[in-house]
């Protein structure tokens, strides 16, 4: 069996204090080089930031690594300047990160990598262009999660394939295998016996293909980041010695270690080189390992990912406009890449988080950047004698609001759609299925978490109506369990646009999830086979068909992990619709770091399709609640515009 391995080096590792970095280099990185020196050809990947840190702490390690690269005994696997989750950041940042990472690697190691490791194995089709443009010949990406939503031949996993992009392009991919690298981790941590490990590996049956025996962190061997109380106990015997032992046994049993780039020879094999979609409607952004490791982990949990990402987006938009990437502005882009590091969004220590936030705020100050918030007033004339339903009309749009449910949208239409209602409420009894026997509103919020009642804005209110040269507005204030919500729905008088605005004044950040801006598609007269959604996830817009699909991105994984999927919407919009008509939904200010979530279910008499936007989710990295957190005061909102059908 042909075997290869890639070890990921990351001195930005969230739970490693800066003062422990020399120890990590000594205990983890030097033994890795010793393995190579003993004849095991390995791939070693590091971001530009990690290479700079190693160079500054231990330049001898860099010297030895360069010697191994020159001799062909090891292979450098590329990355960005920072370990950034590509599908969550704008295209401009992805381009800059990959360019700066490649430049830094070439300067420090005097080599140009052929293969790039996909950070956290978080992929979208829009990323293919970026890696090709950066000069990479292939990527290293997880097989297991794309495969579970695909109907691929079993041989696909053992050979290099081609990951499709958004516009006919593709990039060769060599596979990582989450279960396989976890087995080596378990063996090294003495949670698996040698014979159990060997039996597992040799039963995989790769035939003429390759097995990625490892493709993850180097820092977990002979060092413990202390993220979890139940981490494997570190014994006296070196875990690197155990890895060397099992590598030696594999060699003696006739297995051959090869450099990762050798795998690309399999592109011409009859089982290799197939063009594959790694994403799909139900899993638009596949990520490594088990389902708790999903895109919300770096978007909406951690210490305060939403606010951190929103400020990063604001700075990115400013840099793209006024400080394009060049030698003069390079430091600003490097600082932003640093501040968008994935590790600042998970188990980051308090000291490192505060230092990084200060760095980001300083960059925002230097570039005169801030996260904007929409302003609106809850004022006007009380609306009376309208029953439960209140209608607002202009030449370009009509909206009917339910005043018994906090200005939930009953139905809304646009002139270019021939005033056919496009979104609104599907009432109790619309669907025949009993488990859909509820009201499915539009425009509302849902906040829910451990230890608190479920919070919504579906309350009876008396709206205040106002009119200006631009808008007709209905507004109200609603008491929540966690504080107060001001809400407004306005239609534009001179263009086809409806806005839904929210102003939160809460005692603290919500302790669970917070999902707002629900838009429920009215599908009764739409062709189910032509329904779709579009989103950009780090690159060009991607188109996903909903024909026959049933999924919910907001499905919780466990009590502690509140969602399973999401959309990066890195161009700050989602398009949802069908052949007859479509809607474009966007945050009022594009820097607001929401992720979109789609729910689609095949039902009678028509499919249930809706989109909503999350500004907070929950997982084991979350450190939120009412303790030391400041009060949560934030205004945001969404615009909804008509699009032609597709």
Provide tags for this entry:
646 residues; alpha+beta; 7-stranded beta/alpha barrel; Beta-galactosidase, Chain A, domain 5; 3 domains; ten-stranded antiparallel beta sheet; six-stranded antiparallel beta sheet; 13 helices; 26% strand
Secondary-structure blueprint:
Layout (H helix, E strand, L loop, with lengths): L1 E8 L11 H17 L4 E5 L1 H10 L1 H12 L3 E4 L13 H19 L5 E3 L10 H6 L4 E5 L1 H5 L12 E4 L5 E7 L1 H11 L5 H9 L7 E8 L21 H14 L3 E2 L17 E2 L19 H4 L5 H18 L7 H10 L10 H17 L14 E2 L6 E5 L3 E6 L5 E7 L8 E2 L21 E3 L6 E2 L7 E4 L3 E10 L2 E10 L5 E9 L6 E8 L11 E5 L4 E5 L5 E2 L21 E4 L3 E7 L7 E7 L6 E9 L15 E13 L2
Parallel strand pairs: 1-2, 1-8, 1-9, 2-3, 4-5, 5-7, 6-10
Antiparallel strand pairs: 6-7, 11-18, 12-13, 13-14, 14-15, 16-17, 16-22, 18-19, 19-20, 20-21, 21-30, 22-29, 23-24, 23-26, 25-28, 26-27, 27-30, 28-29
Helix pairs in contact: 1-3, 2-3, 2-4, 4-12, 7-8, 11-12, 11-13, 12-13
Task: Explain the overall architecture.
This is Glycoside hydrolase family 57. Belongs to the glycosyl hydrolase 57 family. One of its GO terms (biological process) is carbohydrate metabolic process. Keywords: Carbohydrate metabolism, Hydrolase. One of its GO terms (molecular function) is hydrolase activity. Helix content is about 25%, strand content about 25%. With about 650 residues, the chain is α+β, with helices and mostly antiparallel strands. The chain folds into three domains: about 1-290, 7-stranded beta/alpha barrel; about 305-365, no CATH class; about 385-645, Beta-galactosidase, Chain A, domain 5 (Distorted Sandwich). Strands 11-18-19-20-21-30-27-26-23-24 form a ten-stranded antiparallel β-sheet, with no helix packed on it. Strand 23 (about 530-535) and strand 24 form a beta hairpin. Helix 7 (about 180-190) packs antiparallel against helix 8 (about 195-200). The longest helix is centred in the N-terminal third of the chain and has 19 residues, at about 90-110. The radius of gyration is 26 Å and the shape is globular. The protein starts with a strand and ends with a strand. The mean pLDDT is about 95.
